[in-house]
UniProtKB/TrEMBL annotation:
Entry annotated with the keyword Hydrolase: yes
Any Gene Ontology CC annotation: Slx1-Slx4 complex
PANTHER family: STRUCTURE-SPECIFIC ENDONUCLEASE SUBUNIT SLX1
The keyword Nucleus is annotated on this UniProt entry: yes
GO molecular function, one term: 5'-flap endonuclease activity
GIY-YIG domain ranges (all copies): 10-92
Protein name per Swiss-Prot or TrEMBL: Structure-specific endonuclease subunit SLX1
Organism superkingdom: Eukaryota
Cofactor(s) named in the record: a divalent metal cation
Primary localisation category: nucleus
Biological function: Catalytic subunit of the SLX1-SLX4 structure-specific endonuclease that resolves DNA secondary structures generated during DNA repair and recombination. Has endonuclease activity towards branched DNA substrates, introducing single-strand cuts in duplex DNA close to junctions with ss-DNA.
UniProt keywords, alphabetically: DNA damage, DNA recombination, DNA repair, Endonuclease, Hydrolase, Nuclease, Nucleus
Amino acid sequence: MSQLARPIPALYAVYVLRSTKRHASIYIGSTPHPPRRLNQHNGMARGGAVRTSKDTLRPWEVMILITGFPSSIAALKFEWALTNPHLTTHISTEERITTRAPRKKGQRKSRKPIHSLRSVVSNLHLLVGVSSFARWPLTLHFFVPEPKKAWDNWLKAKETTPREGIKIMEDYEPDEGSNGTKSAEPWGIRALPLDYAPIKPYVEKAHNVVKFEREGNCVHCHEALESGKGLQPMCPHDGCEAMGHLDCWSKHALKGEPKEILLPLSCTCPSCGGKINWSDMMKELTLRVRGPKEVAKLLKKKRRTKKEIAAEAAAEEDI
């Protein structure tokens, strides 16, 4: 299946690793499954990369994770640009801050620049704001304090604020308790949802409306919606089943935006008045239209175990 025919992935992330033994050693990559990928880099599972395979650098840790990409191709483009800020065309010549290292005597080619925490964070600032990526609903996750501090220092030095639509999240390793033990609660990349479970109620609501042909009229133009035909996004808010033509939703969301802007960021539902993140609505729509197998898997009811059935029977007898 081509990338264009797939639903927006539940998760596809660009990650920045650093060696816990030598913080100056940094590696950038992308993956749909950060915990598994980190295990590969640390030699706990097959795979990984040559650059992260040295025992003198392991274990590695994720210090920054960027999520919210509309496809794996989008994530790969961003990863390449962040890995090669001296070459990417997404950064203009005037703004470029990373260039090739000067050639040493006897070398035929100039050297590829070495990543540092400061350079990665600075280029991350540039990339999330360029026109190619500025409308993407990206979230920056910081799992160690140093890159977040570097991010804030960059904003302070430039006297600016993060661009609209970007989210910043911090999740650091919990401190040890008074008894010297750490919390068993997952944190960092191991606390991230890797599937569509967070939007299951939304997916189920839309699935049932389409299944029983309750689409009704477009919430915008009020024309009747043809059941099961065309692209018809639905409001994600609980209790609201407002649907409409994709084109109508888009025009509604882009009101007041410059004419050259094609990708909405958010809008309000004309029916319930709730705020809608465009990316959330598109994730459900593409899953409904392009991912019937994923929807079936998500909505499949788990078979009850004998213990659960027996417990329910015992509870009924006690009533």
